[in-house]
Backbone:
């Protein structure tokens, strides 16, 4: 990941088209290194989650160009690289595994991150997930506990239990979630240390009960839509 880190750190300090065009070959080297890792990541995840088998790098990665139309930040390029590996690819709406490289710590997510779960799901999917929690909250809590090293993201959660569920529900804190995500941050030293792929796969493997339960709710929602 050294080429990726070096390029992204420079890009953050020179986020403009003139610099990017002059360093396009460096970007292409960094992108190739990242894509090689993602290809291996997909193959590794498929060994414990067969629903992602056959995905391509393109199915899981994102363009470096930012959509600045509705943003006050007009810098043209993202200063991170990310890959979302999930059943059907990044746009499918299923829960999955996100690998994020952001070595500066001052960009989109504030640093390097592993994440597993659902982000910005459609309202009917969120409703289905809450019904799953209502019926099988203890199973979800066990899945969260099994994902050692990860923490539950509580960003963007509701302040109150959503309508239709009792305020004293035993899993009220889970019902408040709009994004149901487990997260694990890691620094640049860990990113550049050996066996990154193996360590990442070990981490994601521990989230498989969590992913499977969420996707059970996603499947139900899609059947009803």
Residues:
């Amino acid at each position: 990941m050294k080429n990726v880190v070096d390029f992204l750190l420079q890009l953050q300090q020179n986020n403009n088209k003139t610099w990017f065009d002059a360093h396009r070959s460096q970007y292409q080297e960094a992108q190739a290194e990242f894509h090689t890792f993602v290809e291996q990541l997909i193959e590794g995840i498929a060994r414990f989650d067969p629903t992602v088998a056959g995905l391509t790098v393109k199915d899981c990665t994102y363009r470096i160009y930012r959509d600045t139309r509705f943003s006050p930040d007009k810098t043209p390029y993202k200063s991170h690289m990310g890959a979302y590996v999930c059943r059907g690819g990044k746009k499918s709406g299923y829960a999955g595994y996100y690998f994020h490289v952001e070595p500066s710590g001052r960009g989109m997510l504030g640093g390097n991150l592993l994440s597993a779960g659902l982000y910005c799901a459609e309202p009917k999917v969120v409703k289905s997930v809450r019904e799953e929690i209502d019926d099988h909250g203890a199973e979800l809590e066990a899945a969260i506990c099994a994902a050692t090293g990860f923490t539950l993201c509580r960003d963007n959660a509701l302040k109150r239990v959503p309508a239709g569920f009792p305020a004293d529900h035993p899993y009220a804190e889970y019902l408040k979630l709009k994004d149901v995500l487990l997260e694990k941050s890691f620094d640049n030293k860990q990113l550049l240390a050996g066996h990154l792929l193996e360590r990442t796969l070990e981490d994601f493997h521990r989230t498989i009960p969590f992913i499977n339960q969420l996707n059970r709710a996603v499947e139900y929602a899609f059947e009803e839509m």
Summary: Strands lie at 81-86, 96-101, 112-118, 151-152, 180-186. The mean pLDDT is 96. The first strand starts at residue 81 and ends at 86.
